[in-house]
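Quick one:
INPUT:
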């Protein structure tokens, strides 16, 4: 069992940057592959980044590739999402998720634990 809590969301102008943090408590974070998902009003939840349990592999959809970076610091029990060159279409609630597996995936139903989300709003 692990508990997740996101922080770092806010309002930013297009072209700006934000860093989101996901703090974990309970079971050691190193037992989980991790991912960030987002959901905008009226749209389905979609993955924006995934990282393997050991941090050796990361994956991103084309919509954010080259702009977003996921990283993990298991000693601090924290996963990060660095977001650069933000666009209005990045506006959404961003969620941290954990999966009892070595490899991260792009399917939300594969993940076992979720945070409550943090709002990111990008103005034009």
């Amino acid at each position: 069992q692990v508990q997740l809590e996101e922080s770092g969301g806010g309002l930013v102008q297009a072209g700006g940057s934000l860093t989101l943090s996901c703090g974990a408590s309970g079971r050691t974070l190193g037992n989980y592959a991790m991912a960030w998902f987002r959901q905008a009003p009226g749209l389905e939840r979609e993955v924006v980044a995934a990282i393997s349990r050991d941090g050796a592999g990361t994956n991103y959809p084309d919509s954010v590739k080259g702009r977003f970076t996921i990283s993990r610091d298991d000693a601090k029990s924290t996963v990060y999402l660095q977001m650069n060159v933000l666009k209005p279409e990045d506006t959404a609630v961003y969620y941290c998720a954990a999966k009892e597996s070595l490899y991260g995936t792009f399917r939300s139903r594969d993940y076992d634990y979720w945070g409550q989300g943090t709002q990111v709003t990008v103005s034009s």
